[in-house]
Specification:
four-stranded mixed β-sheet, 14 helices, 23 strands, binds uridine-diphosphate-2(N-acetylglucosaminyl) butyric acid, Enolpyruvate_Tfrase_dom, EC 2.5.1.7, UDP-N-acetylglucosamine 1-carboxyvinyltransferase activity, cell wall biogenesis/degradation
């Protein structure tokens, strides 16, 4: 397994361009199988989760061509609705659950293994299933597989008990091909929900209200291929913003949608960081000492749970005591032990971490417990007083394109080593 070695203490300087949004494209790629057609998708990030999704679709029979960040997905020939043989691939990511909605929409049948994904708490898919059942599917879970069949798929009124990104997208994927009107109430409003809906509408779907908590979908009989460009990744943008703030750097982050970053911009400004918005860019200038703040993770437009861990790193060196309350995933504090090993002063009480700032973090060997914890460990390494080794970076590769190269271009001293590398012995 690869590891990162980071020599801390270098302020980030320069420019970085943000790649396409992981959690949007992971809904868009399965959406492309909703018809016998060919779609061209631009701004597709080169990350492990996306590459796995492509492999699964190819194994199901889709023809996929990739050139740089452009993907062409051709499903003119029928593909299989049975994903059960590809449990190894589906088990390595969360978004494999979108094959349920997409295949149910196209074939009225789907067999898909239960998904994997980061171990950050209880992650049921009961709301997805409730939605599919409301649309007329029978759903059986046995031997680790979700088996669905719907002789008829009919529009329905669905009220989500919890605001769920996955359930909102999954229900949209099936409902666009159902007969009649579906209403999703208490829908998630994340930018990636809007992006998947925009893609579906370009394919001929009729979806209104994406980005609000009531989404109305009128099912259509025919859909067709389209050309689409994925939005920039909100969480990757936030990660670079925090890395600049933590290192007292000055960077321009290009190809971003500043509106998507408002919750993060507001919190960083409260900490004393200078954040300047441009048309499709954000400049971040870190000013130390950082001020302590309180953060509570919430569904969009609130502060995203996916940036809770990087934010905690900033708090470890802020003046005073900050709190961070995780209201989405109850086990998203596993990385705290690693930060404590670097000298951070953190106590956890239920879902709230209290973090009292220290002068600096001390470099040591730390490990990555999940994707965003990995991003947090990298930021911790960038500010630590020496050489930090971060192991299990396979989690980071799932969601960040060219992280090491981008950080190097910004002046960080970071290299990737494999266990075979003598530097790691
Ligand atoms: N929930 C249920 N039942 C369901 C679905 C969700 O109780 O059927 C609960 C969850 O347990 C959680 C809350 O609802 O407490 C929100 O979960 P959501 O369904 O929104 O999360 P998800 O679809 O499993 C996606 C992202 C995550 C991101 C969350 C929240 C993808 C592939 N994953 O997960 O991304 O943290 O939304 O925004 O889109 C990441 O990128 O690192 C990541 C973990």
């Amino acid at each position: 397994m690869d590891a990162f070695i980071i020599e801390g203490g270098n302020p980030l300087q320069g420019e970085v361009a943000i790649s396409g949004a992981k959690n949007a494209v992971l809904g868009i790629i399965p959406a492309a199988v909703l018809c016998a057609c060919s779609s061209k998708i631009d701004n597709v990030p080169d990350i492990k989760d996306v590459n796995k999704m492509i492999v699964i679709l190819e194994k199901l029979g889709a023809e996929i061509y990739r050139e740089n960040d452009t993907l062409i997905i051709n499903t003119e020939k029928p593909i299989s609705y049975d994903v059960s043989d590809y449990e190894e691939e589906t088990g390595q990511m969360r978004a494999s659950y979108y094959l349920l909605g997409a295949l149910l929409g196209r074939y009225r049948k789907a067999i898909v293994p239960l998904p994997g994904g980061c171990n950050i708490g209880d992650r049921p898919i009961d709301q997805h299933i409730k939605g599919f059942q409301a649309l007329g599917a029978t759903v059986v879970i046995e031997h680790g597989q979700v088996k669905m069949e719907a002789p008829e798929l009919k529009g329905a009124h669905i009220f989500l008990d919890v605001v769920s990104v996955g359930a909102t997208i999954n229900i949209m994927l099936a409902a666009v091909r159902a007969d009649g009107k579906t209403i999703i109430e208490n829908a998630a409003k994340e930018p990636h929900i809007v992006d998947v809906a925009n893609f579906l509408n370009l394919m001929g779907a009729n979806i209104k209200g994406a980005g609000t908590d009531v989404i109305k979908i009128v099912g259509v009989e025919e859909m067709h291929g389209c050309e689409y460009s994925v939005i920039p990744d909100q969480i990757t943008t936030g990660t670079y913003m925090m890395a600049a703030a933590a290192t007292e750097g000055d960077i321009l982050i290009k190809n971003v949608i500043p509106k998507h970053m408002e919750a993060i911009t507001a919190k960083l400004s409260e900490m004393g960081v200078v954040v300047l918005e441009e048309d499709d860019g954000i400049r971040v200038i870190g000013k130390h000492p950082l001020k302590a703040v309180n953060v509570k993770t919430m569904p969009y437009p609130g502060f995203p749970t996916d940036l809770q861990q990087p934010m905690a790193v900033l708090m470890t060196i802020a003046q005073g005591t900050s709190t961070i309350t995780e209201s989405i995933f109850e086990s998203r504090f596993k990385y705290v032990d690693e930060l404590r090993r670097m000298g951070a002063n953190i106590s956890i009480n239920s879902r709230t971490a209290s973090i009292t700032g220290v002068k600096s973090l001390s470099a040591t060997k730390i490990r990555t417990t999940d994707l965003r914890a990995g991003a947090a460990m990298v930021i911790a390494g960038l500010i630590a007083d020496g050489e930090t080794k971060i192991t299990e970076i396979v989690h980071i590769d799932r969601g960040y394109e060219n992280l090491q190269e981008n950080l190097r271009n910004l002046g960080a001293v970071i290299r990737r080593v494999s266990e075979k590398d003598p530097a790691c012995l």
